[in-house]
C-alpha cells in the first residue's frame, strides 16, 4: 500500500527534486506523463531563443564564426554521453533519428560486407523497420531484413550470416526492455554488430552502450531528453568503428578541414565525419537548455528516480484502479521496463481522452493501451498519486463515456 | 553615373519597398550584404517563437495532433514554389541540403541504372562534390564522379553514359549562373537527368525548374529565403519522377499511412515520400515567418528588384571604387549572375574586415574575393549607395591596414 504521505516522503528524499524548478511549469494542475513523446521545456529556453534571434538579427553570417553554431553537435553530444554510457567524444547530435538510422545501418553493412542479414523484430519502431527495408531495396536486395517476433528465436537466429542485430532498446508500445548486454554478447560471439535505437530509453533508464559492448546507436532527443519538438537526434559509434569507413552521407560538416573548401572529400577523424550539412542552429541552441541541465545529473540518481517513480505509479495503478479494469501491460520487473508504463483498459481510447480532459496527459496506442512516460527530472511521486486518483475517478464515474475517441500520437 | 538621388528615386518606385518593414531592423547603420550566407529575420519571428514555446509547455505531445507540425514540410514548400518555378505540390522543406543532395543523387542513379557517370564541375560547392564522392564510394565505385572544369567541355561531355548532370545553378564564389534551360536541353537530348542545387539562387534570381526542364533540385533556405540559421532545406522532384522509386532513406514520415504504425514500408504518393523522420518542428515554425511573406511576393517583382539592386551596386562599385583597386568578379551580364556580387581587391581579406568595422557585412573568400549577397525584400538602392561610399572611404584612407585578417564564413 502506498498513500499520499508515502509519496510526499519519497519526494522529500529525492536528490533530483531541485531540478523540477528548472523546467517551465505548465498550466496549474496539469500533469504531463508524455515524456515518451515530448519532454518538458527547461525554464530558460525562452531566454535562449531570444538571444538566438538577436544573433540572427545582429550577427547574421558572422554567427558562423563568432558563435559555437558549428560546434554544437559535439558539445551537445558530450553533455548527455554519461546518460547512455558513452565517452563524450563518441556522441554527436545531428539530423533526425531516421537519417541517423540510415547512416549507421549502411555503415554496419559496410563493416560486415560478407554478411547479408539485418536481424530485427517486426515490432521494432516503424521508422527503424522502414529504413532497413528502404536500404535493402536500394542495394538491390543483396541485403535481407529478417524480422523475428519471438525474442528467444531472434537471439537464436544470430549467426554467421548476420551483419547486424538491429533493435530498439525499449518497445515503444509495451515498454519492454531488451537486456542490451546479453544481446551484444550473443551478437559478438557470432561476429555480428549491434545497432540500438535508444529513443524510449535515453534520459529515463540505465543505458550503458560501452559497458554492454554495443557497436552503434541512435536515439531521439525530444522525448525523455527534453530537447524540444523535433530536436536533432543523437548518434553514437563505438570508437573502434569510427574511422574504418567513410560516412555514407559524406557532407561538408564531416570533412577533415571544413573551411578548406576542398574539392575532394576527406573524412574528419572520429565521430565528426557523421555530420552532414549545416547543423540545425536554432534547434541546437534551444535543446542546449535541457542538455546543460543533463550535465549536472548523475546517471545513478536518474535511474533511481525513474525506478522509484515507475514502481510507485505501477503500484498505485494496481492498488487504486486494478478493480476498475486497469491491467499493467509493461513488464513487472523494472529491469525489463523502459521509459514508460503502459496499461490496458477495455476502453483505453476514451479513457485516455478523459484523462486529458482531467489534466493528465498520457498517450494512447491501439487497440487499448494507455502509456504514461515518466520524466524523472520534473515529475514527483505526488504527481503519480494525483494521476492515479484522477484515473480512478474517471473509471468509477465512467466519465470516459462522454469523450470522443482521440487521435493517436507520436 | 548613379548618384544618391537616383538611388532614392529607384527606391521610391520599388513595388517591394513595403516589405522592408516586415523584417527586423538591425542596429542602426549596419547594412547586411550577406544574404548569400544568412538572410534577414522577419519581424514576427520572436512572436512565433514565443507561441511555439508555449505549445511546447502547454501542449507537449498533443502538439503532434492539434497543430500543423507534421504538415509544415509541405506547407512551407508550397509557400516558395513560385520562386523556383515549381508546382506547389512538388516541393517540401526537410532535412539539410547535404542530406537532400544524397537522396536525390541516389534517386537519379536509380532512375538511370544503366548509366554510371555523375557529371559535375570541380568548382561545385564542396558538399555537393562530397556527397557524390561518398555515394560513389558506398556503391563500390560502380559510379564515376566526373568533374570537368571548362563549362563548354562539360556540356560536350554529356553522353550516353551520363546518368545525371549535377550542378549548382550559381557558383558560390564568382556568382556565375548556368543557363539552366540550356543545360537541361543538352542533358535531356542525351537521356541524362539534371540535379540542381539552387542555394545561391532561390529567393534572389529567376529560377524556373519546370520551365527549364529540370528533373531534381535542392536548395538552402537560410540564405536569400531568410528561413533562419540552419533552417531545413528545400527539395523538388519533377512530378513524373516522384513515384518511380522508393526513397533511399525510407523514413516513417514518408510512409503512405503515417499513423498506421505498419511494419512494412509503403511509400507515400508524390514528393511526400522524401520526408524522413520527425520534422524540425521549431525551426519550421520560425522559417514560416519568411515563407509566409514569400507567398505575397510575385516572382517578377523579386527578379526585377534583384536585378536593379545588382546593376546599381555593380555600377557604384566601379564608379566609386574602380580607381581604388576594385574589380567586379561576378558576371557583367545580369542573366549570367546569381544572388551575390563578387569583387576582387588585392587586400580583399582586410578590406572585408574593415567593411565589417564600418557596418557593411559582406563575406570573404580566399584569395581575394569579397561577396555582397543581395536580399531583395529588405535592401534598398540607398543601402547600395551607402555601402559603396563606405568602401570608397576605407580604400581612400587605407583603414583596412588596421584590421586583422578575418576567418572565412559559410
In short:
With 410 residues, chain A is an alpha/beta fold. Chain A is built from 14 helices and 13 strands. In chain A, strand 6, helix 9 and strand 7 form a beta-alpha-beta unit.
Structure description:
The structure is a homodimer of 410-residue chains. With 410 residues, chain A is α/β, with parallel strands linked by helices. Helix content of chain A is 37%, strand content 13%. Chain A has 14 helices and 13 strands. The first copy, chain A, has helices at 4-12, 45-58, 63-66, 72-80, 97-111, 126-138, 151-157, 180-189, 209-212, 239-242, 281-294, 299-321, 348-357, 381-397, and strands at 31-32, 91-94, 117-120, 144-147, 162-168, 193-197, 216-219, 233-237, 327-328, 340-344, 360-361, 363-365, 369-373. In chain A, the strands form three sheets. Chain A has a seven-stranded mixed β-sheet with strand order 2-8-7-6-5-3-4, with helices on both faces. In chain A, helix 9 (209-212) links the parallel strand 6 and strand 7. In chain A, helix 5 packs across helix 6 (126-138) and helix 12 runs parallel beside helix 14 (381-397). The longest helix of chain A has 23 residues, at 299-321. At the A-B interface, helix 2, helix 3, helix 5, helix 6 and helix 11 of A face helix 2, helix 3, helix 5, helix 6 and helix 11 of B.
